[in-house]
Amino acid sequence: MAGMLKTIGFKIPQSCLLCQQPADALICHYCQTDLPVLALSQCDYNLLNWPKIKSGLQQVAYDSLLVSTEYCWPWDKLLTALKFNQRTLCAKALAEQFYRIALTHNGKRPEVILPMPLHYKRYAKRKYNQTMEIAKHLSALSGIALDDQLCQRSKATQAQTQLSGAQRRKNLRDAFRLSSSPAYQHVAIFDDIIATGSTVNSLSKALKKAKPSLHIEVWAIAISLSPGTSN
Q1: pTM value?
Q2: Cβ atoms of 224 and 194 closer than 8 Å
Q3: Which pick of 67, 104, 106, 140 has the fewest CB atoms within 10 Å?
Q4: Residue 58: its pLDDT value, please?
């Protein structure tokens, strides 16, 4: 039916993913206005300049951090629907909001986006990588290339949720490998949610080991500096 309506020129009605009202966008203007976001301009679009954030992260091995929001409603609704219910429209909505909030300033852009890889066993169980789904839309919006081949998850790590900081670091030791030495000078690692930052830190260390001069930004939709929300 949807294909038939498109063929004969009808526009299929679309509803906002949050308020369910008719809208021209996946998240309507009114809901966008109400979204809680981080004041990125106040920290020069690098959350490592914000002591509250920096103090909650562990052994930062990357150069800057860019996140849309703290982990809260309604962002958690969209992230959970994508991650566990395969609501892939949420990936596009999340990418659009990250781009609007975090990437419309005039800062220097990375050459490439590196989506957080998923181990093949977890991929086989979920059937898709929710971070990759968001990153694909973000690449299209920003015009920044996407490289999903350079970084690979070589270790099937235990779920991070109930682990302490020390346990998380041990769990992620040697969890990533690279298919080759990075050919880039400036990259952005993209993940959906950051808790302690152990996962992005582990991948950053693998990249820096291969190329110490590499400038690494970390991008994420949400940050939660308490256990219970990381992948």
Answers
A1: 0.85
A2: yes
A3: 106
A4: 76
